[in-house]
Description:
By secondary structure, the protein is mainly alpha-helical. The chain is built from 20 helices and no strands. Keywords: Hydrolase, Signal.
Amino acid sequence: xxxxxxxxxxxxxxxxxxxxxxxxxxxxxxxxxxxxxxxxxxxxxxxxxxxxxxxxxxxxxxxxxxxxxxxxxxxxxxxxxxxxxxxxxxxxxxxxxxxxxxxxxxxxxxxxxxxxxxxxxxxxxxxxxxxxxxxxxxxxxxxxxxxxxxxxxxxxxxxxxxxxxxxxxxxxxxxxxxxxxxxxxxxxxxxxxxxxxxxxxxxxxxxxxxxxxxxxxxxxxxxxxxxxxxxxxxxxxxxxxxxxxxxxxxxxxxxxxxxxxxxxxxxxxxxxxxxxxxxxxxxxxxxxxxxxxxxxxxxxxxxxxxxxxxxxxxxxxxxxxxxxxxxxxxxxxxxxxxxxxxxxxxxxxxxxxxxxxxxxxxxxxxxxxxxxxxx
Length: 375
């Protein structure tokens, strides 16, 4: 073979490969900036040529409906093509795709791809394997094997794995209960920014669970998680300010954090916020807002809120008095296990005429069916 032609061919191949890499990199940069249409245009031809990174990114776009319509067939096709070339990010995402099919076959495939990613020392793959063994999903449950994979992932800085180890020690799931170990692993996860670990640490310090009770430390951890949008931490932080456990109670801060949590749908926070509007604590008194948030909590099956909403309708507080709705909400609260509501039901029915009572019982059953307590 002519050496000049060989060198020329090699140089041309290098130029072509460099061009493909550059185009994929441009596509990835566009994707990372949220310019999905541009990313799609740049990545599509490279994916068609077999570029694993381009296939992964396009598969991810179809999976997350980023700039394109969600398409499970395209998702699987592209991720599978990339994963089979050894792209570990595609392997992990493909495993997740199969996991959420929630079928025996899906779990089997999820396990296979998590295993392939884990074999490449990928922390997310290792965590995925650990979780499947921990929960016995798609494989026989094996706590010891789960902990092996969790620790491999945690050693690489996977915060969810560190959280899982902490939780298992905290609850004695598959291991002997050990609050010191739980604290240590939660702390590792919390230091990595894991909001759930920060919340769990906050609870331990708030309740004195395995550590001396320390409301200030609890508040610090709750606030870290709350600033990440963790609704339960926002609720707990609101409670610490509300109750005065951090010193003098600060009702404005309490209302602020209850509002944050309520906006994220936390029923307890919605009830507490409704209560603050009722009394004008930390916020301007507003019966209208109190009713609004009380109903939000009641519709999530929160029995205490359902009972309180019944009182509002019975007594005409912030709403027109309506014994039928009052009875219905009391009934829902009673059926959701709020014991005080039972006497409200029996007391109210004594004063109701047969026609209204019949309507109230029908509506009460509807509320019970529609607004059940969350498990």
